[in-house]
Amino acid sequence: MCAAVPGYSPGFKKPPETLRLKRKRLRRSEAAAPAAAAARSPTGEPGPRPFPGRRNPFSSLDNAPRPAPAPRQPPPGDSAPHPLWQLLDPLPETKSTLEEECSEEDFPTLTKDHHLPVPVPDFPSSPRTEFPVDWSIKTRILFTSSQPFTWAEHLKAQEEAQGFAQHCRATEVNLPQSIQEPKLSTELRCAFQQSLIYWLHPSLPWLQLFPRIGADRKIAGKANPWSHDEELQQVLMSEWSVSFTSLYNLLKAKLCPYFYVCTYQFTVLFRAAGLAGSDGITAVISPTTRGLREAMRNEGIEFSLPFIEETRDRKQRSSETNLEAEVAKNFGVGKHTEDEEEQGVSDDEEESFSWLEEMGVQDKIKKPDAISIKLCKEKHEVQMDHKPESLALVRGINTFTLLNFLINCKSLVASAGPQAGLPPTLLSPVAFRGATMQTLKARSINVKTQVHSSYKDIFSLEIMGPVMPHSLHSLTMLLTSAQKGAFSAVLYAHEPTAVFNARLDMERILHKEICTDLTRCGLHPKTLDQLAGISALGKSSIRFLEMKDYAYTWKP
Predict the structure, then answer these.
(1) 207 shares its domain with 282
(2) pLDDT in tens, 72-114
(3) What's the angle, vertex CA 475, arms to CA 473 and CA 478, rounded to 5?
(4) Are 283 and 414 part of one and the same domain?
(5) pLDDT tens-digit profile of 483-510?
(6) 271 domain-assigned
(7) How far apart are CA 284 and CA 294, in angstroms?
């Protein structure tokens, strides 16, 4: 019956059967060991050699037994060898490694050290007076210093109220380079309270509304009376639409520098004209899917995919360079004109199946239809779904169309699960209609760390909550004065927002002129100047920030 099966080889054994045979041989060799010891003479000379099993004389030209293969070593980290590693023979080395099968363009985060998700760059070669703008939202920041943070503890009621007033009135606070007694500085403590304030909608105190991506487990089990009440869901969405529209109007009037829309699937960052090196309003969306992009196209929203277009342009430039070099080498001619290249492509398309007609089999060959060609062209774009490379950029008047699209988008709100019926979270540095004032949580901790043979006091300040870019910069300005220009910080970012640091456009850099128009947006001029610059972090965010002698170094 085996012979009737096509392609069947009688000598082939399945892996389980191979393991069974190897175990059987191992048991025979173990049983033969006591027999060999018993066969030895009293003088220590070996007796007759036992033969526990007959070997095939035709397995090789000579009958000398082959040396047994060395047992496989267990993988690093195991304390004792695993029996399976002793039973299996070493596998032949193969050349198809992960790096050869997957290109860097398909998986930009792939590195030769697979334990590291992204390459970690070194510190800047020289300290800088300012660190680059970081558009990612931080969930936690831990500041450490050799100087205590007692000035950030137990604010008085008057200091807290003054901080709220300074925020609402956009009061500009300029502290000296170094404060001798930070704990006694009322101005410093009020400014600290001012830097912790942000605005949120909707506000549901029993729910943590940021982050929203991957928050189902934290929200599960909490009271959500709107999940099965359609009328209540409509009320929540109506109020959310009013708040969203209010934020956009403030952004357009340059009274709000930027804001975030955090849904359960993606995040949108709206930035006013003059920020991130752009002379118009911009919106970046990440991550996106093919379905979302197709819906945006159907609504007439013009957008670009910077990472996909950059990869495509790089490939095109590389292929054109190679073609020019090949033509110049073989024929001694220069570059083809664009008309000649287009004509060549057209000729290829028309004559691609001419040879089938000459053979008379053109009717028997199924030609690719338009749908297949379209799917083939969109293959790379589909592969980027849910990845940072799927970032979409919207500019100018299209951001207003995007506003209407998001308000009317059915899939913007989850239809099932713990977040069902819950509108997206709006985060802003300034007040807007329907917003609730919130403050970041701050606490100071004093610990001792061992340095050589003694212990040294290390003081830390922990900031919890959605720390937006302006808050990070404001806090560092305060710490520069209070900690005498020496502190360090470990920053924990909401990873889906790290891609907002990508350099999107280098053509128009007019921020120096536009910054004067944003002076009414409520941010400190130094903070505004930092946000107006172009980020140099790529798709990563700042993980470690250190200041020594009033100069910054950082590590993405």
Answers:
(1) yes
(2) 554 444 444 444 334 334 434 433 333 333 333 333 333 333 3
(3) 110
(4) yes
(5) 999 999 999 999 999 999 988 764 444 4
(6) yes
(7) 16
